[in-house]
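Let's study a protein:

___
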Amino acid sequence: MTADESLQLHYPTIFADFPTLAAAQSTRYGGVSQPPYDSLNLGLHTEDDREAVLENRKRFFAACGFRPDQTAGSHQVHGAEVLKVDAAGYFTGYDALITDQTGILLTVTVADCTPILLYDPVRRAMAAVHAGWKGTVSRIVVRALDAMREHYGTEPADCRAYIGTCIDHCDFEVDADVADHFTDTHKHWDEAKGKFLVNLKQTNRDHLQQAGLPGQQIECSPYSTFSRHRDFFSHRFEKGKTGRMLAAIGLRS
């Protein structure tokens, strides 16, 4: 993967009926970063060359139809706090962002954790959610929906959701200290591996449906960051020495 490869993004089809809505998740392809961050590393808090990261982010934002100064993101803490965003900027301590403002691109950073994008076409409100295993257990995606209801009047039944590429259940091997936080529906014991396997995608999907989203209004990425590490950054596979992807959503002006 080199700097001359074209930018490759994943565009959720669940939002295809809304032409002014930008929604995408990045891959490894199309940036200028050198190994082991090759090539489209978008993570501000990595040891990659900062100028390369800023160039990569500029390319990604442009592909979404936004400038860097029209974006909102947060230094995530694997928590469950939700921030109502009224202006572009970079914040700290939040793992979910919501807005109903046109011209702001909400972003979350991932490299195995689950990105979730939400859109309410009735109220024209949206959310970008970072759900690691701790955020998933804390039902952060439901907290984001609750915040959208509180601030914008969102009804979950009106929403569309995209559960993006993350580490899949066949790759997410954990011990009991993590598995004990999940129900039997969302984990199983693998005797050969001597580990529990936890399904983050299905857990978040079930949380969305329990909150009132119809199943046909939820799209789930079929890919795993771990098994497809040549296409996506995987913190676990690459033992922490890797880049980061962005998932983003926003209404273009």
In short: Residues 9-167+220-251 form a domain with the CNF1/YfiH-like putative cysteine hydrolases fold (CATH 3.60.140.10).
